[in-house]
Design brief:
Blueprint: H1 7-17, E1 21-22, E2 36-37, H2 48-60, H3 84-98, H4 106-123, H5 139-152, H6 162-170
Parallel strand pairs: 1-2
Helix pairs in contact: 1-2, 2-4, 4-5
């Protein structure tokens, strides 16, 4: 059974971080190059845990990629039924990202978004362990993977990174 993450708390966190979002379905993309949609592809409110995963994407994305559909990562698994024009737009943004001489993004950034989402749950004092089943078999595996993310995205974990931001957000 998954632990519920307070959606409103995550929306407040997104406001605090300056992540633009809209609580409607503005396009078929989770990130439309300007803002995150907080509704899923069935047009239902996303739960807090899924929103934290999207916050993870925003945090790990190179700032230059924040103007690209889905941060230039291509089609998300849950995006289906895209028109040819929408597919072309995604491909155009993937090519733009490739032209930025960034490391190959797909698996590293998806993994990082997962681990950061779980880490955010952990920092909020939530029982994140109950949500690990989606991508980690154990807390030990999570810690190992999070350490890899720390190595690959050190700027998120330095003295000005996630933990300090959370202390400020929580008023600690």
């Amino acid at each position: 059974m998954q632990a519920q993450v307070d959606r409103q708390l995550v929306l407040h966190l997104m406001d605090f971080l300056g992540i633009p979002y809209v609580d409607s379905k503005p396009s078929p993309f989770m990130w439309d190059g300007f803002r995150l949609t907080t509704r899923n592809f069935r047009d239902e409110p996303m739960d807090g845990s899924d929103l934290l995963h999207e916050v993870g994407h925003w945090l790990v994305a190179d700032p230059r990629c924040r103007t690209l559909l889905n941060f230039g990562l291509g089609e998300a698994p849950e995006e289906f039924g895209l028109s040819k024009d929408q597919e072309n737009l995604l491909q155009k943004d993937e090519r733009a990202r490739n032209g930025m001489n960034l490391p190959e993004p797909h698996e590293d950034e998806e993994e990082a978004a997962d681990m950061i989402g779980f880490h955010l749950e952990q920092l909020l004092g939530l029982p994140f362990e109950k949500n690990l089943g989606r991508s980690c078999p154990s807390v030990e595996d999570f810690e190992t993977r999070l350490n890899i993310v720390r190595d690959n995205f050190p700027h998120l974990f330095d003295q000005d990174g996630i933990a300090l931001c959370f202390k400020q957000f929580l008023g600690v």
